[in-house]
C-alpha cells in the first residue's frame, strides 16, 4: 500500500453500527490514528454467516469477491472509501462489487444516482467527487441538490435532463429492485456492509481498534479463501 494512502487509511476507526435505515443524515463518528500490527487469528469472531447466501453466480464472475452495500449519505461509508480503495488496488484477484442500498425512499434517490452514473459511463470518474459532495453538504446539515450533483459532470457533458432521464429509466429501476431484494436477502439493517463470497459478512465492531486497517485487510483476505 502506498505510504500516503496508508497514513490516510490508518486514521480510520469505525465502531460500526453504521448508517441505519432512516431518512435523516447521520452524524460522523470519531476516528483514531493507530499503527497497524499483524493479527494472529484473522477471522475468528469477526464475521457472521448469512442465513441465505447471496446468488454468487448472478453477482460475480469469479471468487473471491467482495460486495459492499453503501449509501452516498453515510459518513461511515465515506470514511471507509480510502480503505476499500486500497484493498482493491492491492488485491486485483478480488472482484469488488458496489451495491447502493435502497431500503427507503430517501436512499433510493442516491441508489438511482449511482446506477445512472454507471449507465452513463461516468461512475469511476465521479464516484469520489460525489461522495465528497455529500460529505460537504452534510456539514451544512442538508443533502446536495440535483443541480449541485450535475455541476460535477460538466466535463462529461451530462446535463440535468440526461441525468434525470437515466435515473428514472427502466434499466435503473430494474437495478433498484435487485438492490432491494439483495439487501433484504442478506437481512441487512444498515451500511456499510461488506459481504465476502456471498455469505460472510464482516463485523466491523469486532476488528482491532488499534490495528484496524491491517485487521480489515487480513480478515477479508482470509474470508476470501473460505
Describe this entry's structure for a reader.
- It is a single chain.
- With 226 residues, this protein is an alpha+beta fold.
- The protein has 9 helices and 7 strands; from the N terminus they run H-E-E-H-E-H-E-H-H-H-H-H-E-E-E-H.
- The protein has helices at residues 3-9, 56-59, 75-90, 105-119, 123-139, 146-150, 160-167, 170-185, 212-224, and strands at residues 19-20, 47-49, 65-70, 95-100, 190-191, 193-196, 200-202.
- A 5-stranded mixed β-sheet has the order 2-7-6-3-4, sandwiched between helices. It has a two-stranded antiparallel ribbon with strand order 1-5.
- Helix 3 (75-90) links the parallel strand 3 and strand 4.
- Helix 4 (105-119) packs antiparallel against helix 5 (123-139), helix 4 (105-119) packs across helix 7 (160-167) and helix 4 packs across helix 8 (170-185).
- The radius of gyration is 17 Å and the shape is globular.
- The two termini are 24 Å apart.
- Mean pLDDT is 88; it is low at 3-17 and 22-36.
Offer a concise description of the structure:
The chain is an alpha+beta fold and 226 residues long.
Q: If you average the pLDDT, what whole number results?
A: 88
First-last Cα distance: 24 Å
Spans with pLDDT under 50 lasting ≥5 residues? 3-17, 22-36
| Global outline | globular
Amino acid at each position: 500500500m502506498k505510504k500516503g494512502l496508508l497514513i490516510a487509511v490508518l486514521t480510520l476507526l469505525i465502531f460500526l453500527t453504521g448508517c441505519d435505515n432512516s431518512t435523516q443524515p447521520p452524524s460522523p463518528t470519531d476516528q483514531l490514528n493507530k499503527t497497524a500490527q499483524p493479527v494472529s487469528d484473522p477471522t475468528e469472531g469477526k464475521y457472521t454467516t448469512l442465513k441465505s447466501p447471496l446468488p454468487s453466480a448472478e453477482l460475480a464472475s469469479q471468487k473471491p469477491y467482495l460486495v459492499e452495500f453503501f449509501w452516498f449519505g453515510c459518513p461511515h461509508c465515506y470514511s471507509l472509501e480510502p480503505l476499500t480503495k486500497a484493498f482493491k488496488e492491492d488485491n486485483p484477484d478480488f472482484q469488488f462489487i458496489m451495491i447502493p442500498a435502497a431500503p427507503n425512499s430517501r436512499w433510493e434517490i442516491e441508489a438511482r444516482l449511482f446506477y445512472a452514473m454507471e449507465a452513463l459511463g461516468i461512475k469511476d470518474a465521479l464516484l469520489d467527487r460525489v461522495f465528497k459532495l455529500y460529505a460537504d453538504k452534510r456539514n451544512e446539515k442538508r443533502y446536495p441538490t440535483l443541480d449541485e450533483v450535475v455541476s460535477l459532470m460538466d466535463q462529461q457533458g451530462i446535463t440535468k435532463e440526461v441525468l434525470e432521464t437515466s435515473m428514472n429509466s427502466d434499466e435503473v429501476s430494474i437495478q433498484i429492485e435487485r438492490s432491494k431484494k439483495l439487501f433484504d436477502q442478506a437481512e441487512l439493517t444498515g451500511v456499510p456492509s461488506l459481504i465476502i463470497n456471498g455469505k460472510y459478512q464482516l463485523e466491523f465492531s469486532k476488528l482491532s481498534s488499534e490495528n484496524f486497517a491491517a485487521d480489515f485487510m487480513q480478515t477479508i483476505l482470509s474470508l476470501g479463501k473460505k
